[in-house]
Structures are given as C-alpha cells and as structure tokens.
Amino acid sequence: MRYIDEYRDAGAARQYAEMIRKTTTRPWTLMEICGGQTHTIVKFGIESLLPRELTLVHGPGCPVCVTPLEIIDKAIIIASRPDVIFTSFGDMLRVPGSTKDLLSVKAEGGNVRMVYSPLDAVKIAQQNPEKKVVFFAVGFETTAPANAMSVWQAKRLGLKNFSILCSHVLVPPAMEALLSSPANLVQGFLAAGHVCTVMGFEEYFPISAKYNVPIVVTGFEPVDILQGVYMTVKQLEEGRREVENQYARSVRREGNVPAQKLLAEVFDVTDRKWRGIGSIPRSGYRLKKEYAEYDADIVFDVGNITVQESPLCIAGLVLQGLKKPHECAAFGKQCTPERPLGAPMVSSEGACAAYYHYRRFATELSPAPVG
After folding, report:
1. pLDDT at 368
2. If DSSP codes are grouped into helix, strand and coil, which group holds residue 120?
C-alpha cells in the first residue's frame, strides 16, 4: 500500500541505520514525543538497529496516558447518572480511575457507548432528547478540531442536551516543561507528525532556539523513525540546533489553517494537569465562555476532585523519559493490561502496553524484523 509499504522497506531501514552508525561519534539521548512512534520503535525493534551511543526515551505522547486521574473520576461520576448517555472513543473505556473504569460503569448498567467520532455523539443527542449526552473529549491538537466541530455543530443545531468533558492537552508546552526540568536528559526531539499536520511547526522554532535542541517533525513508520533519528543526530554532530520536517508528505509549516481557525473560535488555552507529571501552564484547551453551555464540567457541576496515584506506578517517570516501562517493579506483575495500575498499560499508544505486548520476555534489546 502506498505510503505504508515503502516506509516499512527493510532495505531502506538498514541503509538509514548504517548512516546513523557512521554519523554517531558520541552519546546522545533523543525523545520521541508520540506514543504511536513509541509503538513502532518497540514493535519493529528499531533500538536494536541503533549504535549503543544512542538512547531513545519515550515522551508524554499519549493523550490517554496523561489524562488526569481526576478527569477519569469525573467521567465515571457523570457516566453513572441514569439521565446520561456517556460517549467516548474506545481507548478511554479501560483507563483506570481511582476505583474503577468506564467499562465497569457500563457493566453496572450505565449507558456508556463507544463512538468513532464526536459527531456520532451529536447524532445520539438528536435522537435522544430526553437524555443528556456527553462526549469525552481527550487528545492532543490532532483530535481537537473534530471535538471543536461537534460543539460548533451542536450550537448551530440548538441542542440543549449535548456537552463535552474536555481534557485536551498541547504538545509544545509539555516539551518546554521537560526541557526546563533539572532532571532533563533529552538532547533532541522527534516531534509528533500528526500534531504538526494540524498545527504546523512554527511553535517549535522558539523552543529549539531557547533550549538549543534539534526538533525533527517525524512520521510513524519504521523508515520515518530512522530517518528522523538520522536527521536529529546529524544536527547534533554538526553542532546545529534547528527545526526540520521529515514528515513532509503530510506536514506543512503552516499546518491546517481552517482547523486552527475553528480551534480558536471554540477553545481558549488554559493551564492543564498532566497525569503523572503535574500542572503545565497553558498546556490545554477549555471551551470559550460563548460555548459554556456545552462544558460538562459546568453542566454537571462535578467540582474539584483530588485523588492519589498508585504508589506502585511509575508512569510519570516513564512519560518524562526518566525510566523505561520494564524498570517498574510492578510491570507485568501487579500491572498488566487486564489489571492496569496506570493508563500507559492500557492505552493503544501507551509505552507500557508496547513493552508488554512486544518486549516483555526480552531480557535485553534484540533485533526484530523491519519488513
């Protein structure tokens, strides 16, 4: 399939791996931002193709993983109400709250439904005027335009029984938070290609300049990753710290301008708490006052909830690139996809899930097929 097979070509992957080995002369630590990139790296054994001087660490690039425990508990409270139809993408249904998950609410009789688009939730609201329909709006900038469109559409339809529980997070402020930390190990970033498809990459230039790090917008297939690593290492070895675009087949510098205009109409930028990391200034979206009637936080008045993470879970350290999943004492023991302690073990983009499915029996990195 075009744009898939050619970026999984084993010969091309080996060529880039050889170019990386020839270019690397000293130790470097790189971080891939997106959980989809993490899964590609682990599934295809990309680390085994790299020289030992290169270390890849996994960033907070899974919006499911960084959704605060308090928001999950709010979702559970709302979904448990008999007058509510609670809708969500499937990857949020098994994310653990402080006591249970949304699938447990469904098993207990709650009207919890998996949908494939927030506009499906709008249709459900039209079809069920006697119910309050809520969509769990989680994600990076990638999914934000569709969620903004659902609210925009609901307002134009005059719907009074639709709202979203918003937990959108933004990538550039998270990168700044990592780089400004005294514990930071990252010397270069593979930026998330799908985020940049929407937002472009203008925001990365001041970050690169301020923190003196290369940032390479990168795709999600094995050859994408290896090319992105090569471009990043080449910059580091040459003493350059710039923003480059590996994912040019999808990303333009300015991004998707109509989508950005819709986001600006519906959302304001706000401070946002990230699960396992803490509050990051101006790192999320909230609905503007003009759309407050569609804000589930206001509609249901769930108030402030404070809960504690499991002391056994080191997801916060994993999401900051300070630990690998297998370094957690609970990994594969107290924490499994069937009984997760943290979101990274159940999310389709979670680093812990990637290690569990593809590498949990490996005692050390070993080669894996690329094509």
Report:
1. 40
2. helix
User: In this predicted model, what pLDDT tens digit does every residue of 237-290 receive, in sequence order?
Assistant: 999 999 999 999 999 999 999 999 999 999 999 999 998 788 999 999 999 999
Res. 366: pLDDT tops 60: no
- What is the distance between the alpha carbons of residues 90 and 102, in angstroms, rounded to a whole number? 10
204 contacts: CB under 8 Å, gap ≥ 6: 172, 175, 191, 215, 217, 243
**Could you read off the pLDDT of 191-238 as tens digits, one per residue?**
999 999 999 999 999 999 999 999 999 999 999 999 999 999 999 999
User: Position of tokens 């050390």?
Assistant: 364
Residue 352: phi and psi, rounded to 5, are: -65, -40
**What does the pLDDT read at residue 3?**
62
Bridge partner list, 85: 111, 133
- DSSP code for 303: -
**What domains are there in the chain, each with its CATH number?**
68-168+256-300 (3.40.50.11740), 315-359 (no CATH)
pLDDT in tens, 4-31: 788 999 999 999 999 999 999 999 999 9
pTM (predicted TM-score) = 0.91
User: Quick check: 132 pLDDT over 70?
Assistant: yes
- Cα-Cα-Cα-Cα torsion 176, 181, 187, 190, nearest 10 degrees, comes to -40
Written as one string, the DSSP assignment of 171-208 is HHHHHHHHHHSTT---SEEEEEHHHHHHH-STTHHHHH
How do strand 84-88 and strand 111-114 relate by DSSP bridges?
parallel
8 A C-beta contact, residue 138 and residue 164:
no
201 by DSSP, 3-state: which? coil
- Per DSSP (E only), the strands in 37-161 are 54-58, 84-88, 111-114, 132-139
Contacts of 46 (CB under 8 A, 6+ apart): 40, 56, 222, 225, 226, 370
Instruction: List % helix, strand, coil for the chain (3-state, nearest 5).
Output: 45, 20, 40
Residue type, 287: L
Spatial separation of the C-alpha atoms in residues 139 and 65, rounded to whole Å: 10
Q: Are 80 and 302 in contact (CB under 8 A)?
A: no
